[in-house]
């Protein structure tokens, strides 16, 4: 795994690019568009190939540019190998176009045959709808893209971001009992179930705060954001508002909140509307 500098969301500064496999290997999330880190990646690929390994292509977790910024450079540099196979979800391919690359759709239940390793494809939506993770079940290692981050934070930004799907994804990875989770940003996480459980609790805690921020009157997200995110500085409100909206959409789908245009109010637990005290 190489942590290569990328134009990503601060405070994160780099994206992890993994070379997974042995006699056959795949490059996961070549995010850097910069010359110097790209030459590090070329050196790692060349070393594997010099050792006799076969490079089978690139796999992407999702479509954000800090995960595939080096794709075109790779296709050009290795043009003599033919067109570069690109393994990703169909929703990811819809956003990623690079010359010299052949898209192959993969989805939950597929696997990439890397000789001694069978890399399982898991559909792990939430951060984006087509987000994939890659699981080496035998070694208990998953490459989790932007499901968690140990540097920076994970943004759930609707409509691509989906909070309910994200919580399901976290629970699914938690249940795998992984030995190691390799995120795209920050250091790998040993025994990640505890961290995944914390992520779930953190989001549910925020959801409770969002419920507490809602009143019986329809109010706009800009009014609700300071109540739902009391600890956040006003300059971060635009970002927090996206996350707030993700929570509100989930609450709306569950019948716990109600929407009128861009404004929201809580729905009484008994479905009786506003409570009137005598
Ligand atoms: Zn992302």
Compact summary:
It is built from seven helices and 15 strands.
Explain how this protein is built:
The chain is α/β, with parallel strands linked by helices and 278 residues long. The chain folds into two domains: 2-203, 4-Layer Sandwich (Metallo-beta-lactamase, Chain A); 214-266, Arc Repressor Mutant, subunit A. 31% of the residues lie in helices and 25% in strands. It is built from seven helices and 15 strands. The protein has helices at residues 35-50, 71-77, 90-93, 163-175, 193-213, 221-228, 237-253; strands at 2-5, 14-21, 24-28, 54-59, 84-88, 101-105, 111-114, 117-123, 132-136, 141-145, 180-183, 189-190, 219-220, 257-260, 263-266. Strand 1 (2-5) and strand 2 form a beta hairpin. Zinc ion is lined by residues 62, 64, 127, 146.
Show the helix and strand layout.
Blueprint: E1 2-5, E2 14-21, E3 24-28, H1 35-50, E4 54-59, H2 71-77, E5 84-88, H3 90-93, E6 101-105, E7 111-114, E8 117-123, E9 132-136, E10 141-145, H4 163-175, E11 180-183, E12 189-190, H5 193-213, E13 219-220, H6 221-228, H7 237-253, E14 257-260, E15 263-266
This protein binds zinc ion (ZN).
């Amino acid at each position: 795994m190489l942590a290569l500098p990328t134009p990503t969301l601060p405070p994160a500064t780099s994206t992890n690019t993994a070379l997974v496999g042995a006699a056959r290997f795949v490059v996961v999330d070549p995010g850097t568009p910069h010359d110097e880190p790209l030459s590090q990646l070329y050196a790692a690929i060349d070393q594997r190939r010099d050792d006799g390994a076969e490079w089978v292509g690139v796999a992407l977790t999702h479509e954000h540019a800090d995960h595939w910024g080096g794709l075109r450079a790779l296709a050009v540099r290795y043009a003599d190998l033919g067109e570069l196979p690109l393994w990703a979800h169909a929703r990811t391919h819809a956003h990623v176009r690079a010359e010299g690359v052949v898209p192959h759709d993969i989805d939950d239940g597929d696997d990439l045959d890397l000789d001694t390793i069978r890399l399982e494809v898991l559909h792990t939506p939430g951060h984006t709808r087509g987000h994939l993770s890659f699981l080496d079940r035998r070694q208990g290692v998953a490459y989790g893209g932007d499901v968690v981050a140990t540097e920076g934070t994970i943004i759930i930004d609707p409509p691509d971001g989906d909070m309910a799907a994200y919580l399901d994804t976290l629970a699914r990875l938690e249940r795998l009992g992984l030995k190691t989770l390799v995120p795209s940003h920050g250091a790998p996480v040993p025994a990640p179930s505890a961290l995944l459980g914390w992520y779930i609790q953190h989001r549910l805690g925020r959801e409770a705060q969002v419920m507490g921020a809602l009143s019986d009157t329809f109010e706009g997200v800009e009014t609700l954001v300071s109540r739902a995110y009391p600890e956040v500085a006003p300059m971060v409100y635009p970002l927090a508002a996206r996350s707030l909206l993700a929570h509100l959409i989930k609450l709306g789908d569950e019948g716990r909140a109600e929407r009128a245009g861009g404004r929201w109010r809580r729905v009484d637990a008994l479905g009786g509307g506003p409570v009137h005290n005598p």
